[in-house]
Amino acid sequence: MDYKGWYERKSKEKPFWTITDIIFVSAMGPPGGGRAVVTQRLQRHYNIIAYTEMSFESITTIFTTIASAFFATFHKDV
């Protein structure tokens, strides 16, 4: 990620493969239970988003609001 590509390790010539226009998406949990610590060198490439656990009522309210706004443009039979 830091050098915009990597070398092909299986080839004897070891050509450099340039990587362009790529987006990395990942999810991480706290270390433990088989999960390793993620280094600061890797973490600096990501934005960290955290949230608290929501109740069932909160989740229902959010998705009901989104679905209602989406289906409002359709005929009532839908």
Number of helices: 2
**Which stretches are low in confidence, meaning pLDDT under 50 for 5 or more residues running?**
none
Percent helix range: 25-40%
Radius of gyration: 22 Å
Structural class: alpha+beta
| Through-space gap between termini | 47 Å
The general outline is elongated
User: Main β-sheet, in a few words?
Assistant: 2 strands, antiparallel
Which structural traits does this protein have?
78 residues, alpha+beta, two-stranded antiparallel sheet
Give a written overview of the molecule.
The chain has helices at residues 40-43, 56-71, and strands at residues 5-7, 16-18. The protein has one domain. The chain is built from two helices and two strands. The longest helix is centred in the last third of the chain and has 16 residues, at 56-71. The model has no long low-confidence stretch (mean pLDDT 85). The protein is 26% helix and 8% strand. It is an alpha+beta fold. It is elongated. It has a two-stranded antiparallel sheet. The N and C termini lie far apart (47 Å).
Secondary-structure map:
Blueprint: E1 5-7, E2 16-18, H1 40-43, H2 56-71
Antiparallel strand pairs: 1-2
Summarize the structure.
The chain has 78 residues and is α+β, with helices and mostly antiparallel strands. It contains 2 helices and 2 strands, in the order ββαα.
